Amino acid sequence: MNNEMEKAGLFGLGQPNDAFAQYFIGQSYLNPVTTEGIGIFNVTFKPGCRNNWHIHHAGKGGGQILLCMSGRGWYQEWGKEARELHPGDAVVIPPEVKHWHGAAKDSWFAHLALEVPGKNTSNEWCEAVDDAVYAKLN
């Protein structure tokens, strides 16, 4: 992938995701699409970058939706096999589900992250994805 459109998709690379860097292995970028109504963020991962396990808590409603825009990535829920992601894939993540997502080892990856509205919502960041487990993914 040579240009920004190939790497980050239609919504662009944005800025280094420094505010959340402590919750990622590798470099990610964040480009807010909108923060009014429903928060929509273009998140771009350099090859090998992934976020830590995390949970979207909500008293009612809540959760997250991922719309894959470019590259190849992974999504995994706690206790389940990882799912390979490609442009056009959608992932609906209910609240209270521990999960992670990020790029494949050899590919940039971008997705739109939509915050599903809810009451008493919060995010809990957990441990990093184990390097040995990640290394087994193709």
Write the layout of secondary structure elements.
Layout: H1 4-8, E1 15-16, E2 24-25, E3 28-34, E4 40-45, E5 50-51, E6 54-57, E7 60-61, E8 64-71, E9 73-77, E10 83-85, E11 90-93, E12 99-103, E13 109-115, E14 118-119, E15 122-125, H2 131-135
Antiparallel strand pairs: 1-3, 2-5, 3-4, 4-13, 6-15, 7-14, 8-11, 8-13, 9-10, 9-12
Description:
- Residues 43-106 form the Cupin type-2 domain.
- This is Cupin domain-containing protein.
- With 138 residues, the chain is mainly β.
- The protein has two helices and 15 strands.
- It has helices spanning 4-8, 131-135; strands at 15-16, 24-25, 28-34, 40-45, 50-51, 54-57, 60-61, 64-71, 73-77, 83-85, 90-93, 99-103, 109-115, 118-119, 122-125.
- A six-stranded antiparallel β-sheet has the order 1-3-4-13-8-11. The chain has a three-stranded antiparallel β-sheet with strand order 10-9-12, with no helix packed on it. Strands 2-5 form a two-stranded antiparallel sheet.
- The two termini are 18 Å apart.
Question: CATH homologous superfamily name?
Answer: Jelly Rolls
Q: Report strand %.
A: over 45%
Count up the domains.
1
- State mean pLDDT (0 to 100 scale): 95
- Helix and strand composition category: mainly beta
CATH architecture: Sandwich
Q: Tell me, what is the CATH class?
A: Mainly Beta
| Rg from alpha-carbon coordinates | 14 Å
Strand neighbour order, sheet with most strands: 1-3-4-13-8-11
CATH fold-level name:
Jelly Rolls
Largest sheet: 6 strands, antiparallel
N- to C-terminal separation? Answer: 18 Å
Give the SSE order as H and E letters. HEEEEEEEEEEEEEEEH
Outline the low-pLDDT stretches.
none
Total count of strands: 15
